[in-house]
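B., you asked whether I could sanity-check this one before it goes into the benchmark set. Here's the sequence:
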Amino acid sequence: MIEGSPDAMKAAIQREESLFDAARRLTQRAERNAFLDEACAGDALLRARIEELLAAEAEAERFFADSTAALRIPAGEI
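And here's what the prediction gave me:
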């Protein structure tokens, strides 16, 4: 949880969003891990939060891919 003054909270959220956006663009696991190692610099809570966001995004992508595939099944085959 992000705590502090409103300005500090806003800055922390912006940093988190920026790191998430940068990390999600890295498709190779080793490259992403190296980026997070450096970007989070020992901040285990920040690292965990970014990894949670990345996992949630991957889960959402799988869900929508599966849903899209299900829509392509001819009605007689359901």
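One thing to flag: The two ends are 44 Å apart (CA to CA). Otherwise nothing jumped out at me.
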